[in-house]
């Protein structure tokens, strides 16, 4: 039962290359802990901060995200960044989502703890605290030094430890290349999709 008040939207941004159980467990834990109404998965189109050599085409990452989130009633996926031409920026995405969900929507941008440390370098970073709070999901044993985060963001950043985040997309891609099993590291539908479309081989 969710409390009354503004709609609480979790925005889980990421390359999702591929999406895996760690992403899903993190979203579920955060949905529960922060009493969110919905967690929206937003695969990035052209992430400005990543090399594109090993990134699967946007349409494949979008379809894997849809397959992975389909069975959870409070998860959904949005192609908002994939459809946008040019590079994808978090600030633009949040403004667009507020138009869709309502200007009074309370936004919580969910990302990895390592990405949060770089937040002051993001596009229009100085404006981000005005439109969203941040939830940094960390792997067990990862210590986020809050001193490394710009003071502007410390007040609006929450840290959550998620055991399943020991799984990584990078390791999954390496296992596929080596011909090793990836079963149970990601949803079965995503595993089948990867093999059917010969991704990461």
Automatic annotation (TrEMBL):
Q: Which residues form the Cytidyltransferase-like domain?
A: 11-175
Q: Which family does it belong to?
A: Belongs to the NadD family.
User: Which key words tag this protein in UniProt?
Assistant: ATP-binding, NAD, Nucleotide-binding, Nucleotidyltransferase, Pyridine nucleotide biosynthesis, Transferase
Q: What does this protein do?
A: Catalyzes the reversible adenylation of nicotinate mononucleotide (NaMN) to nicotinic acid adenine dinucleotide (NaAD).
The protein's name is Probable nicotinate-nucleotide adenylyltransferase
Instruction: Please name the CDD domains in this protein's record.
Output: NMNAT
Task: List the NCBIfam families hit by this protein, alphabetically.
Answer: cyt_tran_rel (TIGR00125), nicotinate (nicotinamide) nucleotide adenylyltransferase (TIGR00482), PRK00071.1-3 (NF000840)
State its Enzyme Commission number(s). 2.7.7.18
Pathway(s) the chain acts in: Cofactor biosynthesis; NAD(+) biosynthesis; deamido-NAD(+) from nicotinate D-ribonucleotide: step 1/1
Q: What molecular function terms (GO) are annotated for this protein? A: ATP binding; nicotinate-nucleotide adenylyltransferase activity
The gene behind this protein is: nadD
